[in-house]
Design goal:
The protein is α/β, with parallel strands linked by helices and 203 residues long. The chain has helices at residues 2-8, 26-31, 38-51, 70-83, 100-103, 111-134; strands spanning 16-18, 56-63, 87-92, 140-148, 154-159, 164-168, 177-185, 190-194.
């Protein structure tokens, strides 16, 4: 609560929070030696949502950690659905020599199962992202321009809520901040148009 209050007091802090989940299974969190439970995590997400205006929440999840049964994976999906992450960095488990998990070979998850679970996680995130971005249709966001597309005058950059916005312009280059009004959202992209500042005429 104290940290959230401090973040809210600084206008330069943008409403994007990367909160690594790793797993929604308490059993696997203990095996990973994580110092929190699934309920701790969901309570944290609720507190962030209550404190900020439509914050963007992203996460990390390990798929196929030793011992991740179908039931344990379903526990992770429950948290994913609760948090509505707009992006999930989904990684497959990779055994590191010398760690306890590397010795749990009898609990390793088959590679094809891991790929399927990563695909499910990515699909949930894409759906959440589209719903989230649709909520900003017609609104103005500030974008830090990152790059120009390979052809034409299409540019893109990330807004204060993390998601990428594409727009056409021959005036704005990488590193510039530009205000865009979101006018179109697809399953994978958001598009906007630059907002022109109106000139105030004093007579």
């Amino acid at each position: 609560a104290e940290l959230i209050a401090i973040l809210k007091s600084h206008p330069q802090v943008v409403p994007h929070f990367h909160l690594p989940l790793q797993s929604g299974s308490d059993l696997l969190l203990r095996r990973m030696n994580r110092q929190y439970t699934r309920d701790d995590f969901m309570r944290m997400v609720d507190e962030v949502n209550a404190a900020f205006d439509r914050p963007a929440i992203t996460t990390d999840i390990i798929a196929g950690f030793p011992g991740e049964s179908s039931a344990e994976f379903e526990r992770t999906l429950e948290v994913v659905d609760h948090a509505k992450f707009i992006h999930i960095h989904a990684f497959s488990f990779s055994a590191r020599p010398g760690t306890a998990a590397a010795r749990w070979t009898g609990d390793f998850v088959h590679g094809e199962v891991v790929k399927e679970r990563i695909a499910i996680l990515n699909d949930r995130a894409r759906n959440s992202s589209e719903r989230y971005r649709n909520a900003f249709l017609g609104e103005t966001v500030e974008v830090l321009v990152e790059a120009q597309e390979a052809s034409g005058d299409l540019r893109h950059g990330r807004c204060e809520r993390y998601f990428d916005v594409h727009f056409q312009s021959d005036e704005h280059g990488a590193g510039e901040a530009v205000k865009l009004r979101i006018n179109r959202v697809t399953s994978t992209r958001s598009f906007g148009v630059p907002v022109r500042r109106s000139l105030r005429v004093v007579v």
